[in-house]
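Hi V.,

You were right to ask for the full record rather than a summary. Here it is.
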Amino acid sequence: MPLSTHFSTQDESKLRAWLGDKAGELGFDGLRITDTQLGVASERLQEWLAEGRHGHMEYMQRHADLRSDPQLLVPGTVRVICVTMNYLPQESDFELEWKRLEDPMQAVVSMYARGRDYHKVLRNRLQEFAKAIEEKIGAFGYRVFTDSAPLMEVELARKAGLGWRGKHTLLLNRESGSTFFLGEILVDVPLPIDQETEEHCGSCTSCIDVCPTRAITAPYQLDARRCISYLTIENPEAIPVEFRRAMGNRVYGCDDCQLICPWNKFAKRTQLPDFAQRHGLGQASLLHLWSWTEAEFEQRHEGSAIRRIGYGRWRRNLAVAMGNALASPIVSYQDKAGIRKALGEGMATADAMVTEHIQWALEHSF
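Predicted structure:
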């Protein structure tokens, strides 16, 4: 389909090449284009919601109709420009990440959240990209997104050919594994469409087998209510007792299914300083993070995705991890004494939810 009567096939080809080059200049690592037809993915979303697997993420239910059709979200949309941006910090080392998970005194924060809030980074660059396109082809209708609206991002990116959906439900590609963010520009310009890519998971079930809480209930099936990322971030209530031991020392998110994935041996380090870890979040101990006051939490997480969970959930998550450290046979008596002291002192200013988690940590430490 031509862009207009003024665009020849050669013009379209040149524009497509320019889009890829410009995306690279702006720090994006991949770009593909697709239409708005989501097919059976919309039906699968409805089934997932009907089973209640979204937990407390009511926004998923509220805007399910918009998720099913980008044209309802932004009327006039005919194409979706999908991009990826690698986030793995330069200093990241998967072997060291596994070792930190085995050290109960360490506080493990998901790798994607150790730097600046990706929402802001991608949104600003997508907006800049859209403005550049406007300068190139003239005024057109568009809207940019990055995990900020009811949009089936993974499905659109898969359909556009940026990768395939892994059995853990994340997008995978052969060039950089799964350690990238997704962004989209919904446009009213009929750009040429890219082709889907083949799946390459084969018979591998590593991500399913490694999940601490068995949240991946079957290939391509995720029960968010069991997922540590959901429990530590989206869940506003008490963490169910049945999952507290399995959380280990994970205090914000969980990377296990990505750390174990064979395709992530190709994971690319980001070239952007925005995603470099801040405040030592890649090496921090539980006691160090527990020592932060609410004011310190707000200040140190300014511009971070972590800030949005609030101080209460942050302390809730840390209390569970500290309880697991108290129950660990490899933690020294001296370290356990330090944890008990810190938890006891924290009780004085804790709200009801954090208090319950502190009590659990102290009472179930043997």
